[in-house]
């Protein structure tokens, strides 16, 4: 009896010590720094984790890590917590590895421990790798600091704490990053090494190096916002995929993105129940494409009438706007949608649109999401600006990636499908299923431009060149009827626009069975004999 009492007394001191150290961790950088974070309109990293996680599901790892101070009697005075908070949590019931910089402690810069909790080469990335669960990065820090060299006594060679694990994860599990403050250096690099990233309007910036370095290197005086705010990072550079108005919205986008993803590349995306009938046929689809072939229409409205109601989630809506890339569901099954936007350049593919489509096709191919191409592309963007921007090279990269796809694809021509840009909407490695609406037209290039080039001399020699050009166009246009192509089975089926949803839902259901078979060998890879 006495032994038990003595044991309880001894361990009570240890439990008290544990509780005290946990309180230091919860205090983060102290009340003043926490207030400063809130004053800037930002949540603390612990608040962010609580907001995005299912209630009570966060299990912290490395709670006690930090820099301790002891008095002369070697009694603990205080612990400055590590600058990274990490652990496991559940998002919509599914486990994830999650972590982020604590900006209230030294601005989130590395605190120089022997082993990192987060960041490149950190424990949280190892956790996602070994348990094959998604990784969520909540980024709010500038990475390393020149002061670390003084503390360490030497400077480290680039790559000692490298991105090897960050890169490896991109082929294993979904990686989603929210840039929730100013990110430079390593944290900015990890934001780029993500399958999906989002930043907050007015409070987030991302760049390789900040204004002081830019001023010292180039003599340019520029603000953080002008250097790496959403107007640059999202709209122009496309470095970050999406922008949110608030931190809460950014965290919701992370959850929405992951809801379409499998836990890892050895699983299929989750299927969700839907009360949207698979056989729903929309009469409005009959009139959505204008009779005037040059008139634009709302492709996003078309997509919304076809996919499960309120299921679509657009990726990079403000970048490369000539193409629309979004995640959606058909009959509850996750799919990728690539659709041309006739409101931008008539739907012609420019360099940014090509890069955007490439990234999205690779994302879907990695995580087994069937692709649906809704095609209305007149070709690559032409002209001096397009050539200077490398449109041809980027466009052919899109053709190359489309030809490498291993996932099931369906190509549905809504209106135009011309030239090499049209090739980037087909998957010759698959069954190459090509469907079309009666409004569909295709070829090497549109009749108008083709006639002007092929019959240049005849047109110039005519008494009325313009009239002769129009005659030739009318003559050749007779051969562009989609029904003539269907006669030769060069397009598999012409469908009534109202049939679009039922047909796509049916093919996507068939695709799921194909994907299950494809998972078999990979699921067994690495198993000992």
Helix/strand layout:
Blueprint: H1 2-27, H2 31-39, H3 45-52, E1 59-61, E2 66-70, E3 76-81, E4 84-91, E5 94-101, H4 123-131, E6 135-139, H5 147-152, H6 164-169, E7 175-179, E8 182-184, H7 185-192, E9 196-200, E10 205-207, H8 211-218, H9 224-228, H10 230-236, E11 242-244, H11 247-260, H12 299-306, E12 313-315, E13 323-330, E14 333-340, H13 351-366, E15 371-377, H14 384-388, H15 391-404, E16 409-418, H16 419-423, E17 433-436, E18 441-443, H17 447-454, H18 456-461, H19 465-477, H20 482-487, E19 493-494, H21 500-524
Parallel strand pairs: 5-6, 6-7, 7-9, 8-10, 9-11, 14-15, 15-16, 16-17, 16-18, 17-19
Antiparallel strand pairs: 1-4, 2-3, 4-5, 12-13, 13-14
Helix pairs in contact: 13-15, 17-19
Explained architecture:
This protein is of the alpha/beta class. The protein has 2 domains: 2-260, 2-enoyl-CoA Hydratase, Chain A, domain 1 (Alpha-Beta Complex), CATH 3.90.226.10; 283-443 and 481-516, Alpha-Beta Complex (2-enoyl-CoA Hydratase, Chain A, domain 1). Helices cover 40% and strands 19% of the residues. The protein is built from 21 helices and 19 strands. The protein has helices at 2-27, 31-39, 45-52, 123-131, 147-152, 164-169, 185-192, 211-218, 224-228, 230-236, 247-260, 299-306, 351-366, 384-388, 391-404, 419-423, 447-454, 456-461, 465-477, 482-487, 500-524; strands at residues 59-61, 66-70, 76-81, 84-91, 94-101, 135-139, 175-179, 182-184, 196-200, 205-207, 242-244, 313-315, 323-330, 333-340, 371-377, 409-418, 433-436, 441-443, 493-494. Strands 12, 13, 14, 15, 16, 17, 18 and 19 form an 8-stranded mixed β-sheet that branches. Strands 1-4-5-6-7-9-11 form a 7-stranded mixed β-sheet, sandwiched between helices. The longest helix is centred in the N-terminal third of the chain and has 26 residues, at 2-27. Residues 521-529 have low confidence and may be disordered.
